[in-house]
Amino acid sequence: MKNYACLILLPCIAAATPAFAQTAQSTSGLEQVADAGSDILVTANREARPASTVGQAVTVLDTATITQRQAVVVADLLRQTPGVSVTRNGGVGTATSVNIRGAESDQTVALIDGIKLNDPSSPGGGFDFGGLLIGNIARIEVLRGAQSVLWGSQAIGGVVNLITRQPTEQVAVNARVEGGWHETGQGFANVSGKMGPVSASLGGGYYTTEGISAYAPGTERDGYRNYAANGSLGIALAPTVSVDVRGFYSNGRTDIDGFPPPTFAFGDTREYGTSEQWTGYAGLNAALFDGRFRNRFGYAHTDTDRHNYDPDGTPTETFAGKGRNDRIEYQGVADLGSAVFATFGAEREVSRFTTASYGGPATRGRARIFSVYGQLAMTPIAGLTATGGVRHDDHNIFGGATTVSASGVYSPNDGATAFRASYSEGFKAPTLYQLQSEYGNARLNPERSRGWDAGVAQKALDGAVEASVTYFRRTSFDLINFVSCDTSVGICADRPFGTYDNVARARAQGVEFALTLRPVEALTVSAAYTYLDAKNRSTGTANAGRDLARRPDNSVSVNADYRWPFGLTTGATVTAVGDSFNNASNSQRLDGYVVTDLRASFPIVDHVEVYGRIENAFDQRYQTILQYGQPGRGAFGGVRLTY
User: Fold this and answer.
1) How far apart are CA 152 and CA 139, in angstroms?
2) CA–CA separation, 500 vs 517, rounded Å?
3) 101 neighbors 81 (Cβ within 8 angstroms)
4) Could you tell me the pTM of the whole model?
5) Contact in structure between 430 and 436 (CB atoms under 8 Å)
6) Which residues pair with 556 in a beta bridge?
7) Which residues, other chains included, contact 111 with Cβ-Cβ below 8 Å and sequence gap of 6+?
8) Is the per-residue pLDDT at 237 higher than 70?
9) Do 405 and 426 form a contact (C-beta atoms < 8 A)?
10) What span, in angstroms and rounded, lies between the C-alpha atoms of 343 and 349?
11) Tens digits of per-residue pLDDT, 149-192?
């Protein structure tokens, strides 16, 4: 009851005004950044704040960038950002991992409108980016480095925050339809506006493709189908009180390849998987003292239901998994003066999962984690902002974990030059599967990390040149791996087929570089480069000192777009990724690759434009996971309405 009392009493201190409710999960805060550029950030402080006060490394993909690059899936945009690598088990819709600064994909926090998207029914507990389409996403913020103080478990590598189209003051309509290669088609629409005290944004869409064979040498196409919906509603109940209600829904079907009898070697099969995800949020926003003390009380719910089927097998359902998260939370933000503000809060999350394979008995699990956190940011002199924070999490199985962070940013010349540095700790709670499945180990500790980064950003020639470089280093320890059992004592008691244990360590370091050039108003060229050195540091193991699997040491992307005087816009993206290894022993090499995408758009009448692109224009054959194919050359075209 103590935990509930804290959460209930804190927001009752004040009542709110919507104008000041600008946290990362309030509708007004999301409205503020949804159509903004990179000068305002909402993820780093869990509140909309100027980028000039943020000491961490952040990349923003705003609405204009997302529209210009014509990407279909979020992962294709993420791989163009510094410090991020992407691997995928085939074409669109297949399992996709996003690694930030060499961390595991399960150590990336994925948010949609500030709500966590992790799946408690997956062994690693992370989010699969495979079925996440651009749809009605208006903005993406990629926050690199451990962020557990504000975002909790899993935020070891970083945070990816996806912000959908939010309510607008005037009625706005955005819609597009598109078709192309391998019978691919999509249609998405969103309408937003405000009437009196009610502001709303509603959207939805559909995507389908026959795809490619997930098995690289295969001939059978593995398609994908998805339909999705998003909604955001804000209600000003009174001048001092506002309520937010938001939801996101996704339903997908993915054809996959497997290991058919009699050889059980990887090859074409008729297998497929389905996934349904519900995400919902309701919150009350409140402010006091002319908006200097802002409060938010919220409830978030995520529900993921996954099934795999083999029409040629018995039984046909090979896997069923259901994961659910319920979170109640309080967040307060106080402006303690013109130069000091504090962010603090408490959260209680209950996770549940159920899994079953081949019609066997179901495995069930449940865990509760209660968290408190606080962060203080100060600007003692013009151009200097220092931030520090601490968090404690209490888990009903493994106990407690405390993390701290600190960052600073200094500009001696009104933002033209900015020096940034940060130190951060991260943790990841053991998943329900690792704790409570037939392979579970209730004695597991959380995975932990410590890391730092430092860098400098420079603007010149009135913004025509922007460049930044960042060095980072992270040590991760108590990493959880599956271990075999050749005894029946200790953690192997009643675990004849193996269990999980905190046995691994890793170290990742590298350099991130970003450059944007605007030599003339009509031309923009941007580039991102990452050097990554990610090593296994598990002393005494066979793979100690080897590269972590599927972590390319070099990656670079270049985007160039030009707007012609008669309205035509043309552009290209070149992505080059270096060699890596497919496995922990480094015995299977994955060759590097270069992929080139071309695009164009042209307005035909007011508010309407046609667009088209050629993906993988030179038909590069490559793999990000051994034996899993990637799409070849494909052409697509569509019509976009913006009103």
Assistant:
1) 22
2) 49
3) no
4) 0.93
5) no
6) 529, 576
7) 43, 117, 151, 159, 160, 161, 162
8) yes
9) no
10) 19
11) 999 999 999 999 999 999 999 999 999 999 999 999 999 999 99
pLDDT at residue 22 in the model = 61
pLDDT recorded at residue 18: 36
Q: Are 589 and 581 in contact (CB under 8 A)?
A: yes
> For residues 602 and 567, is the Cβ–Cβ distance under 8 A?
yes
**Which residues touch 162 (CB under 8 Å, ≥6 apart)?**
74, 110, 111, 112, 113, 132, 137, 139, 140
Nearest C-alpha neighbor of 132 from the set 207, 65, 190, 63: 207
Bridge-based pairing state of the strands 40-41 and 108-112: unpaired
- Among residues 190, 181, 229, the alpha carbon closest in space to that of 208 is found at 181
Tell me what the pLDDT averaged over the chain comes to.
92
Backbone angles phi, psi at 379, to 5 degrees: -120, 85
Task: From 228, 222, 230, select the one nearest 186 (Cα to Cα).
Answer: 228
Would you list the DSSP string of 94-118?
S-EEEEETT--GGGEEEEETTEE--
Q: Helix, strand or coil for residue 151? A: helix
How many whole angstroms separate alpha carbon 1 and alpha carbon 5? 6
Structure tokens at 528: 């991102």
Structure token pair of residue 595: 């992929």
The per-residue DSSP string of 386-450 comes to EEEEEEEEEETTTEEEEEEEEEEEE-TTTTSEEEEEEEEEEEEPPPHHHHHSTT--TTPPPEEEE
Virtual CA dihedral for 109, 111, 116, 120, nearest 10 degrees? -60
Q: Tell me whether residue 602 is exposed, middle or buried, using C-beta atoms within 10 angstroms of its C-beta: 0 to 12, 13 to 18, 19 or more.
A: middle
Separation between Cα atoms, residue 121 and residue 119, nearest integer Å: 5
Cβ atoms of 112 and 133 closer than 8 Å = no
Give the distance from CA 447 to its chain's centroid.
Answer: 19
What does each C-alpha distance from 33 to 29, 52, 340 come to in angstroms?
7, 15, 22
| CA 425/CA 435 separation, integer angstroms | 23
